[in-house]
Amino acid sequence: MNTKKPTAKSQMPNASRYELVIGLEVHVELKTESKMFCGCSADYFGQEPNSHTCPVCLGLPGAIPVPNKKAIEWCIMIAQALNCRILNNSKFDRKNYFYPDLSKGYQISQYDEPFGLGGYIEVYEEEGSRKLKKIGVTRVHMEEDTGKLTHADGASLIDFNRSGVPLVEIVTEPDFDSAYQVTQYLQKLQQIVRYLRVSNADMEKGNMRLEPNISLAVSDLGLGVSKKNQAPNAKRQLPPYKVEVKNINSFRFVAKAIETEEKRQAEILDRGETPAQETRGWNEAKNTTVSQRLKEEANDYRYFPEPDIPPIIITGNEISNIKNQIPELPDAKQKRFESEYSLSAYDTEILTREIDMADYFEQAVKDGSKHNITPKQIANYIINKKVKTDETVPAELIELIKATLQTTEVDESELNKAIVEALTANPKAVEDYKSGKVQIIGFLIGKVRAQLPPGSSVTGLKEAIEEALK
Amino acid sequence: MTSQKDFMRLNELTIKEAITGLNDKKFTSVEITQACLDQIEKLNPDLNVFLTISKHAIQHAEVADQMRADGIKLPLLGIPIAHKDMYMTKGLRTTAASKVLENHVPQYDATAVAKLNKAGAVTLGKVNHDAWAHGGSGENSDFGPTKNPWSTDYVPGGSSSGSAAAVAANMTIAASGTDTGGSIRQPASFTNTVGLKPTYGLVSRYGIIAMASSLDTIGHFTKTVEDAAIYLNVTAGNDPLDATTTQNDIPNYTKDLNLGVKGLKIGLPKEYFAMGMDPEIKKNIEQVAKQYESLGAEIVDISLPHTEYGLAVYYIIQPSEVSSNLARYDGIRYGNDRSSFGDEAIRRIILGTFTLSAGYYDAYYKKAMQVRTLIRHDFESAFKQVDAIISPVSPTPPWKIGDRVDDPLKMYLSDVYTVIANLAGIPGLAIPSGFIGDLPTGFQILGPQFSESMLFRIGKAYEDTQERRVLAVRG
Do A61 and B333 touch (CB under 8 A)? Predict the structure, then answer.
């Protein structure tokens, strides 16, 4: 018999009875030339299996690791970009466990002295809201990737090309309370490591892997675990269990997995039970999570300091040198674009999504200023025309924009005359255009314009030249 | 060195004598190598020293002779050596004296092996030891115990049992070893050979099967102190493949050999005498101290207050690291599976897994590391008072094969004087200091980190007062 008295709350839909409590572990694979602890190429994707291996990453008898300085610097750079404090004294540790893809029987990782501690990323609290929320970054540490297992025809094959590729693990506090916050965080993290040019952070290729820990806290009438009535920044009391979800390889699926888990756990809680602490796998085909391992089977990793690698001492100078290499990051850039160029948040979000686009925009602003083209006009053109930064250089872009802006009508015969003159005077450009270098049109627009009276404008100048070139 | 009789004994030469003779064209490397191979053939069935004999030794000796004829000068050109079977030797079976790696043929050379090869040494083969270097008697080898050439009922010490026996029995001119808690110094003192345990980080560990990575040191066995210095000149120095190797410039270790001990202060740690050493051993070390005094050194009583914790600390840190280092032998990619591990390896894996487990780490491993720091400090303050320390190597003379196999704890206790040098990372040099009955004994000289030149100098001064006793050719 169910003795649980129905309350007003319990009759409400699940979503309002419980609050999501989510923490994230994200692994980012660095794109260093060599692996973390040996000289093998770290570029394993699509390579012949076991072609990028040596005694060290194969874990052969007698082989010992030598850490990759560049990878450590990049890890520290990521940690600093995520507002972490960098430890002056750090070290590597061994995480001992057995798995066929783990060549040494332990993974070299960092346990109690990670390179970075106590950072954050800001996300919008709710969709449509501009209210920011800080997601705490607990730690940023360096470790090595494992080999890759393939199961086929009743056999298991191991490819060690990935063994020892540098991985940075970024762990958050359980600060997320919606899939929306999680998705934003992940996009921002991806954007930041791409800005730093330290990882491709491509989910599909496994450069970026994520594991959410999901649980539900009971709201208000529950056991006082709600955050809603607590003072801001108060440490929220965590549910007595958590469910780790693995095998998620896209941002879309992380939202789906959270949704699925929220529903599944709510049903268990509704029955008055506590969901099991376990690891579940995201099953893409079934669109659900499946239990993989219960807590009882959890590993004791027997961490201890890696004796093959001396402690890492990072001086204040080294920390600031690495910091100086960090470019302006998306949040700061977006804010600056908004104020410096008087752009909307919508525009600046798009323009700063990738660092190459942001740089391109700023170069175009510089070029445009000589021609009285405003940043807003450039932003509009780039966004509306979906300009590809690798096809049109900023100077050409300005010419294209100028062409669209010329509205003072020029007499058609005068225009045709100018076009003919410009084309005749520049046979090389014409030839280039005809052989497919269509971006030369920007140059020809400039030449035609030079034939016209100053200040005059033409609608469809570009089209007219294109017509003449046919 | 021209008579037929002398020719027969080329295997008894020291490195120094061999190089001199080779340079003077008195004999060839092929002849020395053959003499060693003959001795191996003669004695190996009885002593069980070599696990694998290189088929290419003579061929390599021929190359060395040709190089010498071509005027090429290398520090060990044409000198036959044997390697402890913990050293990776490309193409030459390397077993760790364990059934697990019974058929393992390495794909690469250890850095020390590569350096010795580059210096012209000729590899005779691979020698026996306690499996995975776990032990102090050689009896833990999965391929049977090695016998002490001076009296075959007795152990030659361990773990580098085969290396010590090979040098003592003149099956080789020199041999490599590893010392994690005394595995070079103790068998050296049991076999009348010179054994060097270098400073941690002086010789690369790359390519040498790891026992306990923070304690493992890569040293060697020779017939004289001078040979030990010549050998170390080849193996010492930074290795980009071992992050724990020194960046220091390496001196010429033969330079200070004959400076003598006049004016040096040599310490005798009082704690060592309070630990129940065999009276013969005590007499022996007192005789050594007296000898040094007569050579002009000042003997100073010193204190190493944390000595009593040495064994406890060692037998926590070492099995902890062992348990992790042996994890890769999972039978998936090479070697036999875990059922091939012997009792001692299993004992250490279990001990180490326990001491690293959640909830026990702080009480065992972490605490042991803290005490290890105190032991290091003991030596740091001692070396403010004295230039070096002398002590016995083993609290007892060699014991009979089989006497201690059922009592692992008693076996562990015999490491009492040696483990602390490994915990402190300092060098130790074992020097023969006579015989107790039929069996050799020796003492060790300990010095500050990277003081190998000083140890050789002090060792040579004593050695010069003794007649070198060569094992009589048997059979």
Answer: no
